């Protein structure tokens, strides 16, 4: 079925019709004064037809404005509210009870069915049918949504929707699409999703988080909220030590200006470095040393890190582009500059304890008796996942919470 929409706005069409009526009236009255037109002709003139068209246009304009102002309605919610009013009126002594509104088993029972009368009958020791009839007596009249109500056997209340209401809702959908009502309060909302790891391929878990996160963002944006899309990528940590150590040996010219890493498959490069890390103790030692130097922001190691991240970022972008994903990167590296401040704060407040050259923190109310400690600083001076994992949470709690009203979603459980 094709719904036609006039190209000229209805308000302009009405104005044009009114002007045409005035012009024809002037002509008709002029002809009548001269005796060249009779009363019968006046009654059947174009003026009459134009007035009829004008009434149609006005009615169409009213319907259009009504649809334009309306939003997609929660029909089940509206019906539940009507039943709530009826129950409160019929049985004010009852506490709030659930009101199930369900599709009927067959079409002959209408559009929806409610069995709340059976629940109330059990509480009041009455017959379900008499309870249902009492609810119908107090059901709001002229809702514009409900066309008819009837009590079926066993106390079921069958409800049929107004066809006029449905027609207007469908017309609004055809003309203006699916429109949500504006929220009572607008918020800035942070949604953290996707979160792939640099130098690794995105797996189905990342794709799932990406699609769900983007769906949440689109829904919230459609509702009018300001949404901040954050991609908390894994672009820091021990794996970069082994990647940089492997890069230094495989491509010693990487520090050359405008050097482009001749790697098309970063996943294979990662596997090579991981194999060496697991099997070669000397390589493993160099990898750990590279992590520490990276965390200290030594220029050559920062350069190597950026080269690796850029290769991964290009691969991620292909997937995001294909899925139409808009997202702002906020990797683990973002928090590195805050780590020293965090450690200083924890030391000042007495949360850290030195243990064989490392700094640890006990968590939970039971302390040392029940929970293993968090290692905040390793014996070689490097930070751990306990440190980098705590900062995003603290950042969200103390900074994001201050700036934004809510924080939605998390792609992975943080241990």
Please tell me about this protein's structure.
Helix 1 runs antiparallel to helix 3, helix 5 packs across helix 6 and helix 9 packs across helix 10 (266-279). The strands form three sheets. The chain has a four-stranded antiparallel sheet with strand order 1-2-4-3. A four-stranded parallel sheet has the order 7-6-5-11. It has helices at residues 10-33, 39-43, 46-69, 75-90, 116-124, 128-138, 163-176, 204-222, 238-250, 266-279, 281-295, 299-323, 336-348, 385-403; strands spanning 101-102, 112-114, 146-151, 157-161, 188-192, 226-231, 328-329, 352-355, 358-361, 374-377, 406-408. The chain has 415 residues and is α/β, with parallel strands linked by helices.
Order of helices and strands: HHHHEEHHEEHEHEHHHHEHEEEHE
Radius of gyration from the CA trace?
35 Å
Low-confidence stretches: 1-8, 40-44, 404-415
Strand order across the largest sheet: 1-2-4-3
DSSP helix count? 14
Helix content: 40-55%
Going by helix content, strand content and strand pairing, the class is alpha/beta
* Secondary structure: number of strands: 11
Mean pLDDT: 79
Q: How is the main sheet built?
A: 4 strands, antiparallel
Overall geometry comes to: elongated
Measure the end-to-end span: 55 Å
Measured by DSSP, the beta-strand proportion falls in 5-15%
How would the blueprint of this fold be written?
Blueprint: H1 10-33, H2 39-43, H3 46-69, H4 75-90, E1 101-102, E2 112-114, H5 116-124, H6 128-138, E3 146-151, E4 157-161, H7 163-176, E5 188-192, H8 204-222, E6 226-231, H9 238-250, H10 266-279, H11 281-295, H12 299-323, E7 328-329, H13 336-348, E8 352-355, E9 358-361, E10 374-377, H14 385-403, E11 406-408
Parallel strand pairs: 5-6, 5-11, 6-7
Antiparallel strand pairs: 1-2, 2-4, 3-4, 8-9, 9-10
Helix pairs in contact: 1-3, 3-7, 4-6, 5-6, 9-10, 9-11, 9-12, 10-11
């Amino acid at each position: 079925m094709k719904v036609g929409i006039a190209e000229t706005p209805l308000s302009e069409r009405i104005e044009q019709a009114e002007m045409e009526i005035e012009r024809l009236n002037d002509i008709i009255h002029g002809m009548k004064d001269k005796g060249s037109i009779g009363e019968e002709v006046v009654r059947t003139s174009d003026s009459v037809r134009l007035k009829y068209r004008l009434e149609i246009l006005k009615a169409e304009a009213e319907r259009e404005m009504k649809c334009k102002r309306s939003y997609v309605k929660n029909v089940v919610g509206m019906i539940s509210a009507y039943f709530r009013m009826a129950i409160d009126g019929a049985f004010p002594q009852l506490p709030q009870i659930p009101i199930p509104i369900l599709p009927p088993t067959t079409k002959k029972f209408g559009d929806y069915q409610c069995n709340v009368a059976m629940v109330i009958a059990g509480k009041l020791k009455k017959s379900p049918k008499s309870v249902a009839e009492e609810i119908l007596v107090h059901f709001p009249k002229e809702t514009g949504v409900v066309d008819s109500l009837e009590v079926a056997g066993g106390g079921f209340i069958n409800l049929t929707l107004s066809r006029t209401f449905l027609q207007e809702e469908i017309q609004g959908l055809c003309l203006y699409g699916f429109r949500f009502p504006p929220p009572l309060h607008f918020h800035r909302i942070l949604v953290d999703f996707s979160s792939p790891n640099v130098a690794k391929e995105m797996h189905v878990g990342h794709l799932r988080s990406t699609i769900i996160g983007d769906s949440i963002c689109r829904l919230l944006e459609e509702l009018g909220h300001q949404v901040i899309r954050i991609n908390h990528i894994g672009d820091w940590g021990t794996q970069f030590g082994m990647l940089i150590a492997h890069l230094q040996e495989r491509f010693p010219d990487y520090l050359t200006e405008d050097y482009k890493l001749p790697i098309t498959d970063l996943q294979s490069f990662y596997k090579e470095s991981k194999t060496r890390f697991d099997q070669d103790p000397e390589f493993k030692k160099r990898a750990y040393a590279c992590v520490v130097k990276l965390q200290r922001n030594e220029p050559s190691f920062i350069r190597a890190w950026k080269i690796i991240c850029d290769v991964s970022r290009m691969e991620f972008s292909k997937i995001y582009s294909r899925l139409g994903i808009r997202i702002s990167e906020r990797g683990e590296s973002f928090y590195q500059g805050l780590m020293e401040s965090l450690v200083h704060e924890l030391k000042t407040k007495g949360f850290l304890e030195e243990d064989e050259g490392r700094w640890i923190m006990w968590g939970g109310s039971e302390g040392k008796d029940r929970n293993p400690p968090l290692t905040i600083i390793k014996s070689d001076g490097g930070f751990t996942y306990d440190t980098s994992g705590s900062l995003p949470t603290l950042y969200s709690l103390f900074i994001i919470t201050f700036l934004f009203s809510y924080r939605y979603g998390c792609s992975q459980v943080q241990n």
